[in-house]
Every structure is written in C-alpha cells, then in structure tokens.
Amino acid sequence: QVRLVESGGGLVQAGDSLRLSCAASGRTFSVYVMGWWRAAPGKDREFVAAINWKSGDTYYRESVKGRFTVSRDNAKNMVYLQMNSLRPEDTAVYYCAAAPTSVRYTSPGAYQSWGQGTQVTVSS
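-> structure tokens emitted (124 positions)
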C-alpha cells in the first residue's frame, strides 16, 4: 500500500501559478508511475500528467502541455505539479495517484493508490 497526501491547492486568478505537492509513503518501491488527475464539478475524472518514477519520463494531456510541469524528488518521495498560466477551466480537485506499471497510464484503473485531493480554483 502506498499512501499519498496532496497539498498546495488554492484560489488564484487566471494567469497565476500554483505548485501542487504529493508526499508518498509506504511501499514506494512498488511505484512505477506517479500521475496527476483532476475532477471538475459535474465532469469525469481526467488525466493531467504523469511521470515515470525511475526514468523521469513525463506525459501530459494536450491542454496542459507547455503550462504544467510534473517532476519528482525520489530521495524525498515527493511528486510535484507546477501549474503556470492557469485558466478557469483548470478549476478542479487535483489528485495524485500511484501505479505499479506504465501500461495505460492515462486510465484511472491503472492506479492502485490515490490521495484525498486538493482543490484548485481559478477565477477569471
């Protein structure tokens, strides 16, 4: 079991930046990919970004490319999501999640552990 705790959400204006953090503990040696997901009111949860825990390879959904950056600090068991040029449509609860494989990393079913989420609200 991997325990995940997100932090860093808040209320910002369009164009502002936020940095989300995710602290991982427990069986972190079993993690292969760490992902960031979001769920907006009335919408399905959607993939935002992911990072290969070992290689550092990164993956993004098209709408956040060039604005969001996912990174990790293996020594601290931390994953980050730097979000720049935020837009009102980025408003959602953001979750980090851990997957034991890189297969289907854009599918929520690939992830075995989820954090409790952190709210990001972007006003226009």
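Residues 14 and 124 are 5 Å apart (CA to CA).
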